[in-house]
């Protein structure tokens, strides 16, 4: 409950861990991950640094005090292959399972996730907002398979802003919609540090906006994590406590190892 300074974030990361991922239980596909830290790359544009901090829920405002946030990821060569749409062992692919193993400070942490096949949208549309000639609703049309067990997580991007999740929650299951074709509103996402969104513009987009929706399929373990995390009562002292369903195992470990079957959709709203 004490104060948290943005520069403290760098001190929370554990360095020099041994991190590996294995695909489909085949040890021949085991891939080591490399530790890459933000301050190692001085040429990274501020917009990229800002997007990374926004993803962590930090309101980034001073480029001279960027915390040394680190990630464990593929080698730069493999990342280049991935962004050029070339296959690589460590690059996530739909329909596969990925096991995670972390060894650090004498502890071992493990998890697994799957990347489901993406359930494509039929398309995006727009609807007018009654009584307001500047705002619009963006909608998504989707045909839900008759087989149950489909889980969705989505983000939105407005123009050149980062991708944000919706304030009301980003994950859904198909319990109520199995076998149906329906059109749903796509709520405009906001940064994680915003706790009181504007009630007039909340969820809407503006005329002239270019809107991109990142629509992903996730497995049940990933759904359970985010569903419990996003429904924890919002920090209210009067809410019931919710135990977040972590999908990682190990001494004092809690968190999420998630795979996404992703599709991207863009619509430009007429002025």
Structural overview:
By secondary structure, this protein is mainly beta. It contains 3 helices and 15 strands. It has helices spanning 46-55, 76-83, 220-230; strands spanning 18-23, 31-32, 34-37, 70-73, 96-104, 107-115, 123-129, 132-143, 151-158, 171-173, 181-186, 205-206, 210-218, 248-249, 261-268. The protein has a 5-stranded antiparallel β-sheet, with no helix packed on it. Strands 7, 8, 11 and 12 form a 4-stranded antiparallel β-sheet that branches. A 4-stranded antiparallel β-sheet has the order 10-9-13-15. A hairpin with a 2-residue loop joins strand 7 and strand 8 (132-143). It is globular. The mean pLDDT is 86.
Sum this structure up briefly:
This protein has 271 residues and is mainly beta. The protein has helices at residues 46-55, 76-83, 220-230; strands spanning 18-23, 31-32, 34-37, 70-73, 96-104, 107-115, 123-129, 132-143, 151-158, 171-173, 181-186, 205-206, 210-218, 248-249, 261-268.
Q: Strand count, sense and closure of the main sheet?
A: 5 strands, antiparallel
Tell me the overall shape: globular
Low-confidence stretches: none
- Average pLDDT reading: 86
Q: Tell me the structural class.
A: mainly beta
Q: What is the element string, with H for helices and E for strands?
A: EEEHEHEEEEEEEEEHEE
Helix content: 10-25%
Question: Strand order within the widest sheet?
Answer: 2-1-5-6-14
Helices, by number, come to: 3
Share in β-strands: 25-35%
Q: Separation of termini?
A: 46 Å
Radius of gyration: 20 Å
Number of strands: 15
